[in-house]
Design goal:
Largest sheet: 4 strands, antiparallel
Number of strands: 4
Strand order of the largest sheet: 2-3-1-4
Strand content: 25-35%
Distance between the termini: 16 Å
Oligomer: single chain
Order of helices and strands: EHEEHHE
Number of domains: 1
CATH topology: Alpha-Beta Plaits
Number of helices: 3
CATH architecture: 2-Layer Sandwich
CATH class: Alpha Beta
Structural class: alpha+beta
Amino acid sequence: MKKQSIHVFAKWQVAVGELDKVLAYLPQLAEKSRAEAGNLYYKVYQDNADPDMLLLNEAYRDEEALNAHRNSAHYQEIVVTKVLPLLKGREVSLTHEL
């Protein structure tokens, strides 16, 4: 059975006054994530109506690659340690393409 790629849609609602800090972390996070062997793409968007809403669209070769991403030093250091405390809300959907 062929392994299926995993597409991630993450919605980050940044706490009021914390957007500049979160935006400062994103270039390094995106660069390091894109360099992962199992990453297919990593894109970040900002909502036009609500600048504090960031949407991340990522894809990984398979579940193993997604787990490697989540366990990577840069994910743990940037997302878990620095970004998550600055968010007032977060939703993550793991999907596959139909």
